[in-house]
Amino acid sequence: MLIREQVALAPFTTLGVGGPARYFVETHGEAEVIEAVEFTRSRQLPLFVLGGGSNLVVADKGFAGLVLKVAISGSSSFTPPHENVIFTSGAGVNWDTLVAQTVDANCAGLECLSGIPGTVGGIPVQNVGAYGQEVSQTIREVRVLDLQTLEVRTFSNAECGFAYRASIFNTTQRDRYIILQVSFALRRNGKPNVRYADLQKFFASRTGNPTLAEVRAAVREIRHRKAMLIVPGDEDARSAGSFFKNPIMPQSFFEELLARLESRGLQLPGYPANEGFRKVPAAWLVEHAGFTKGYSKGAAGISRRHALAIVNRGGASAADIIALKDEIQAGVLNEFGIELQPEPVLVGF
Ligand SMILES: Cc1cc2nc3c(=O)[nH]c(=O)nc-3n(C[C@H](O)[C@H](O)[C@H](O)COP(=O)(O)OP(=O)(O)OC[C@H]3O[C@@H](n4cnc5c(N)ncnc54)[C@H](O)[C@@H]3O)c2cc1C
């Protein structure tokens, strides 16, 4: 295990901003993860666990502790009698590589999550979701290292406390566990999920049901159009994905706002959330607060193809990104009385 010093973190993130890690280590197995944690204990250093860096904004001053990159590889699958197919992957495996393997094996459940950057270990953290699927629907177990006891344990799906963009790993038990391995229960020869509007539109002119592989290709194509697929050189894809969560509000607040906006000729979209709550698209709020696609503030900007993606147009600092985030949050608060919550994790601030 090689612990390096003063390692630039920007290249380990999709947004490409931020300063160095005081210490940096890549861990390829569970024993190395424990060894790295012990290194932080012996020097009383803060620890940050890094996956694919696709949901992060790292501060310009960097991180004054150990950044532990989880690089545990390996994937396998087996089919217990009369059950779903179980896919198990190391936390360091590239997420989209795993999705491709499951689709190639004609197993349904992850196809709509094609093209999302990051690692297998990163996806349970915010219960990654897109195009009508969330990983909480198929995660079977999550194997973790408990940083309080240094013991390895396995959580069932129910124990992960999944909700919209949330799990115990980013709420009640934040920073307590390092995810080592994740397993999924998928349906062999299952039908793909094409309930999401964008996908239905994509396949509208087609007769017969699309295959899993076709849905995977469609999702990647739709993502590409929105610059939500990372393509080298595509400046609109130099982001941390959607920068704000879709706000969930009490029905009464929603109705009041709806009426107020109707009198201004605006139709506020809203979708059912938990009972008595509505979810409103953050992208609509951002655009109607005056932050249109392509908006720029120095080297930071809003993607020309997606209103929720803050992008690094080249040479942006973390401070530039945060200044734009603050401006958007203040604009939406002023216009609609809603405080947008950032989706990416802020590191070293
Ligand atoms: C272009 C683009 C499109 C995106 N589209 C979507 C989308 O459609 N839906 C969606 O939900 N997200 C999306 N994202 C966000 C992001 O890809 C996901 O949140 C992804 O799962 C993050 O994984 P990561 O490995 O990159 O985690 P990182 O960014 O490295 O880390 C994110 C958080 O997870 C923690 N973490 C990472 N690995 C581990 C581990 N092994 N153990 C414990 N904690 C860990 C980190 O400490 C940090 O708190 C998108 C991002 C980009 C750049």
Instruction: Sketch the major β-sheet.
Output: 6 strands, antiparallel
The top-level CATH class of the largest domain is Alpha Beta
Q: Work out the helix count.
A: 7
SSE string, helices as H and strands as E: EEHEEEEEHEEEEEEHHEEHEEHEEEHE
N-end to C-end Cα span? 28 Å
CATH topology of the largest domain: Uridine Diphospho-n-acetylenolpyruvylglucosamine Reductase, domain 3
Helix content: 10-25%
**Tally of individual domains:** 3
Task: State the low-pLDDT regions, or none.
Answer: none
Task: Kindly name the structural category.
Answer: alpha+beta
Q: Give Rg in angstroms.
A: 21 Å
- CATH architecture identity of the largest domain: 2-Layer Sandwich
The count of strands amounts to 21
* Cofactors, ions, other ligands: flavin-adenine dinucleotide
Please tell me the overall pLDDT. Answer: 96
Shape: globular
What fraction of residues sit in β-strands?
25-35%
Quick description:
With 349 residues, this protein is α+β, with helices and mostly antiparallel strands.
Descriptors for this entry?
349 residues; Uridine Diphospho-n-acetylenolpyruvylglucosamine Reductase, domain 3; Uridine Diphospho-n-acetylenolpyruvylglucosamine Reductase, domain 1; 3 domains; 6-stranded antiparallel sheet; 4-stranded mixed sheet; 7 helices; 27% strand; binds flavin-adenine dinucleotide
